[in-house]
Amino acid sequence: MSTEAAYKPRWLELIAAVRSRFSGEVGYNAGGLIGPFPTSQEYRNVTFTGALDFLGISAYPRLSAKRDADADDYRKGWTQNAYGNNSLKQLNDFLEATDKDVYLTELGSPATRGGAFFLNRPRAASATYDLDQQAAFFDASLEVPATATEGRLEGIYI
To answer: What's the pTM value of the predicted model, to 2 decimals?
Structure first.
């Protein structure tokens, strides 16, 4: 609904109603940086960003298809993810094109071995929790966007 022009008037009405009762900043959390799918590019196509103070991106990037990925794999994955896309370039292009503050308002990966890629796969009985691998994902995913967006990314929330 956020990317369809037909719904824009409803969003603008909702934002105006929120602003009439709330004095803080108003933002929207859009999906993105997941893969090459149109549904993972919502953040690029929100129709009502002009009415917002900031935009958040809900990101679950598939940084590696390796089941035993480590922090180096995840760092490399920001420029060549499991689908061959450069998520960092996509993010930087968006930051360059917008005049809004942008946050990664939701950055995540399941705590299972290979979870950064197999996020939506059926949970096998043999799924193995791997907190070290998840920590490596977060180490790389907090480091790379924070340093490679030249201060244009306002914040990252896991």
So the answer is: 0.88
* CA-based torsion, 12, 17, 20, 26: positive or negative: negative
The structure tokens listed for 16 are 């105006």
The C-alpha angle with vertex 144 and arms to 138 and 147, in degrees rounded to 5, equals 130
Residue 54 near residue 103 (C-beta atoms within 8 A): yes
CATH 3.40.50.261 fits 5-156, yes or no: no
| Distance (Å, whole) CA 70 – CA 79 | 15
CA triplet 90, 109, 134: central angle to 5 degrees? 115
Each residue's pLDDT expressed in tens, for the chain with a length of 158 residues: 999 999 999 999 999 999 999 999 999 999 999 888 877 899 999 999 999 999 999 998 999 988 889 999 999 999 999 999 999 999 999 999 999 999 999 998 877 777 767 655 555 555 678 888 889 999 999 999 999 998 899 999 98
